[in-house]
Amino acid sequence: MRADVFLVERGHAATRSQAQRLIAAGVQWRLSQGLPWQKVTKNGDDIPGIAEVELLDSAEARYLSRGGLKLEGALKATGLAVAGWRCLDVGQSTGGFTDCLLQQGAAQVIGVDVGHGQLHERLRSDVRVVGVEGLNARAMTAESLQEACEEALCERVEQDPDDNDTQPVAPYSWMRNGGLVDEEYDDSDDAKEQDVEAFKAERVARENSRAEGALPTVRRRREGREAVDITPAFDLVTGDLSFISLTLVLPALVPLMKPESALLMLVKPQFELQPGQVGKGGIVRDEALYGVVETRIREACAEQGLAVVAWLPSTIDGGDGNREFFVYARRAA
After folding, report:
1. Strand-pair category, 306-313 with 257-267
2. CB-CB contact of 332 with 307 (8 Å)
3. How far is CA 193 from the centre of its chain?
């Protein structure tokens, strides 16, 4: 079996891309104790299905994506203790930040992403997580977020479900039980032929409407999600956004923050600069531009009433090799 596939299927990695990073960090296998370890050198190396595997550096597997490691470093650097907090994770994607927040003790994470179907199933099934898909953070409001959360937590059920307890009594019901009829038998409540035919026609029409998706429905919270709190007010707002400047998103995020709450956002300089300032391959090569980005983000925070507490380099570079930073800010009381 391919090494990267083996690591995913055996639960050592959540995705093949994570497995490939683990392989780059060092993976070895052996068939049994006492036999020598075999080093995995390529993602496509074959590992026997019965092999024992050892990760030489398991840091990459601590969270569902490298984003979790980035946020872990920022939380340590800022001293933020998120235990018991309700958090908003913008640009949730696979869920690396969400995973980190939960492992640090967050009570709840509501995640927002403009895409669909990216959140890992382990988080999707966690009652502490609400994954909102198809919502653009730039245009988000408290009302639209709350409505999207409700939709994410609910299933659609028919407004007037079939009532099998009120089916008409079949005509000639007196013929049951061997057709015994006595003078006390009363057939006045028996359905008439036309009643039964009308009932059948109604059921056929309803089934056709159901197949066409035309039946009216109502929302109902899924089992186990009835008591989930979706109040759009958070102790911490964090996120990892691409292809958009943070300055365009901050105006939508600040109204969702509680008084004295914190904001901890990953800043990607390549999305904060003008196209002419970004080098080939989308890499920012002029280090002087990092100061330009910092100034721009600090000014944007001040415009929204946020006090920047710290500007921190990410402990891990971006996947494309770009340097990244975290801005840590607080909302006033």
Report:
1. unpaired
2. yes
3. 54
Q: Which residues of 128-158 are buried (b: 16+ CB within 10 A; e: fewer)?
A: bbbbbbebebbebeeeebeebbeebbeeeee
Cα-based distances in Å from 123 to 71, 73, 107, 269: 17, 21, 13, 29
- The pLDDT > 90 percentage for the chain reads 56
Residues written for the chain: 333
How do strand 129-133 and strand 257-267 relate by DSSP bridges?
unpaired
pLDDT in tens, 291-303: 999 999 999 999 9
Lateral strand order in the sheet of 306-313? 129-133, 108-113, 86-90, 234-239, 257-267, 325-331, 306-313
E-state strands within the chain: 27-30, 38-39, 52-55, 86-90, 108-113, 129-133, 154-158, 217-221, 234-239, 257-267, 306-313, 325-331
* CB 70, CB 324: distance < 8 Å: yes
Question: In the structure, what pLDDT confidence band is assigned to residue 323 with cuts at 50, 70 and 90?
Answer: very high
Model pTM above 0.85: no
The mean pLDDT of the chain is 87
Higher pLDDT, 285 or 78: 78
Per-position b or e across 171-189, b if 16+ CB within 10 A of its CB: eeeeeeeeeeeeeeeeeee
